[in-house]
Design brief:
- The structure is a single chain.
- 8% of the residues lie in helices and 57% in strands.
- It is mainly beta.
- A five-stranded mixed beta sheet has the order 1-2-6-9-8. A five-stranded antiparallel beta sheet has the order 3-4-5-10-7, with no helix packed on it.
- The mean pLDDT is 91.
Length: 107
Amino acid sequence: AFAQGVHELLLQCKNGMIHVFPALPASWKEVAFENLIAEGGYRVDASIKNRKITVTVTSKTTGKMKLLLPPAQYQTKGVTFQSEPLGNLLLVTVDAKKGGTYTFIGN
């Protein structure tokens, strides 16, 4: 039960969206996780260090991948994505390919 509770602080899936750091306590200034599995066949690694957010997602399927990320200016290498504000978050959509790895770095 404790591990599931921590998992819910770090990663949640709702309405086809992968929400990274959905309920992170404000006191957690630096945090990281690896290999959490999200609904839809995605493996997620993420970290916050020195106010820099890094999110890496590996897709086990082909299709639209939707991420809800903390607000930041994100950069990627060779990844085309669409983004739009959604409340106080950023909704990022990627046409994911099976086996593809997608990294977003935000400042």
